[in-house]
Amino acid sequence: MKINIKIIFYFLGFLLLINGGFMFLTALLSYFYEDGITNSLLTSGVIVTVVGLLMLFLNKNHDKQINKREGYLVVVLGWLVMIFSGTIPYVLTGTIQGFSNIFFETTSGFTATGATIINNVEILPEGILFWRSITHWLGGMGMIVFAIAILPLLGIGGMQLFSAESPGPNTDKLHPRITDTAKRLWLIYVSYTFIETVCLKLAGMSFFDAVNHSMSNIASGGFSTKNASLAHWNSNPLIQYIVIFFMFIAGANFVLSYFGFKLNFKKIFKDEEFKIYSFLLIGLTIAVALVIYFNTGFLTELDSQLHRIEGVFRHSLFQVVSIITTTGFVTADYTSWTPLLLLMFFGMMFLGGSSGSTSGGFKIMRHLLIIKNGILQFRKILHPHAIIPLRYNTSSVSNEITYNILGFFIVYMLSFIVGTLVFALFGLDFESALGVSASSLGNVGPSIGSYGPLNTFSELPNLAKWWSSFLMLLGRLELFTVLIIFTTYFWRNR
C-alpha cells in the first residue's frame, strides 16, 4: 500500500493555518503593547498562512483514508512543520541571533521542554515573550490532538493520529468518539489556563506575566518572562504555591481532571498511578526538605525558624514538583544543595509525570508496571505453574503492553546513553553531558553541571544544540513515533 502523500500535505497545511492564526494573535498583542515588532509578526503570520492555504488547495482532492503509516508521518512532520514555521517570528524580528539558536528555542517551546538560550529575557519585546509561551501552550497538549477535534469537518478520521501522538500505555478515553475526546481534553486545558491566570493575577502578578506563566505552566513548559524564573517572586509565596498546584494538576492524567470536573473524586483517588504520583511527590519533598534543613545553610538568614521551615518546605516542594512534572520552573539553585540532592534531582528527571498529562519523561505508569512485572517474576519463580496476571487498577494488563513498556525502557535508556556520548563528543564535560541528555530527552528544561538552573543553554556548541533539539522531539513524541520512520520496514509498500 502506497503512502497517501496528499492527505499528509493537506494536514500539514491545516497545521500551518493554526500556527499562522496564533501569529496574528501575537501581532495583536504586540500592537497593544507597542513593542515595535508588530509588522514583523504580521508578516510572519501572512507567510505561514499563505503557505498553509496553498498546501490545502493543492491537495484538496485527496483520499480521505488515513492509515497508521500516514498517522506517524503526519505527527512527526507536523511537529517539524510547526517548529520550522515557528522560527519565522524570531528570524523576522531579529530578537535571537543565529538559526541554531532560533531552532533550539522554538523546538524547546513546542516540545514543552523550557530550555532556553536567551540570557536576558526581560529585554525582549512583549510579542516575542508571548510567542514563546504560545509555542509551549500549543505543544503542551499536542497540536495533533487539537487538530483532530476539527478533523470531522474535513471528513478525515483521527484515531490513527491520536494513537501516534499519544503512544503511551494508557488507553482511557473520555468518550467513544476520538474527536469528542480531543474536544474535552482541550476544554479542560483551556479552563485550567484561564483559572490559573485569574489566580496569579489576584495573587499579585501583572496580567501579562500571569497569562504567560499560565500557558507555560499548564503545558509543563518552563519558559518564564523573568530571568530568575519563579525566583523573581520569592517574596510572594502565594504565587509559588499557585504555580505548584497547577504544575501538580498538569502533571496528572487529564482524564482524571475530567472526572474531577464531574465531581467523581472516587475515580481519582482509586487510580493507582495518581496515588503513586502523589506519594512520590510528598515523600521526595519531605526527604529533600530534611536534607536542606539539617545539612545546608539555605535560608538561615531568615529571622525566625518558622519562616525558615516554611521557606525550605516551599522551595523543596517547588523543585520536586517542577522536575518530576518536567515543567522546569525554578525558585532556587538545587545543584548547590549537597551532592546527595543533586543525584536525587538527576534521578527525578527520569520519572516524568503521569500518562495522559502534558509532562514529558518516562511516565510514572511505566515505572509502576515495570516494578510490578519484576515482582511478578519473583512469584512465578516460586510458583512456576501458577497463572498470575499483571494488574493495574484491578484490570489485567496484557503481555503486549508489558513487552511494549519493557521495550520502551530499553530504547529510552539507550537513547539517553547515546545522547550523553554524543554530547561528550561535542566537548561537554561528564556531568553536563549526562544532565543535558537527561533534560533534553525528558523535556525537563534545567539541567545539571554547566547548564543548571542558573544558566542558559547559550554556551552549547551549535551541533550540540541541534542534537539536543532532536532529543527533545524524540522524548516529546515518546521515541517510537520518531524512530519508526528510520526503519526500512516502515517505507516498504506492502
Which secondary structure elements does this structure contain, and how are they paired or packed?
Elements: H1 5-33, H2 38-58, H3 68-86, H4 88-93, H5 99-110, H6 126-141, H7 143-148, H8 151-154, H9 159-165, H10 178-203, H11 207-218, H12 237-251, H13 254-261, H14 265-269, H15 272-295, H16 305-324, H17 338-348, H18 364-382, E1 390-392, E2 395-397, H19 399-425, H20 430-441, H21 462-476, H22 480-483, H23 488-491
Antiparallel strand pairs: 1-2
Q: What would you note in describing this structure?
A:
The structure is a single chain. The protein has 494 residues and is mostly helical. The protein is built from 23 helices and two strands. The protein has helices at 5-33, 38-58, 68-86, 88-93, 99-110, 126-141, 143-148, 151-154, 159-165, 178-203, 207-218, 237-251, 254-261, 265-269, 272-295, 305-324, 338-348, 364-382, 399-425, 430-441, 462-476, 480-483, 488-491, and strands at residues 390-392, 395-397. Strands 1-2 form a two-stranded antiparallel ribbon. α3 packs across α9 and α12 (237-251) packs parallel to α16 (305-324).
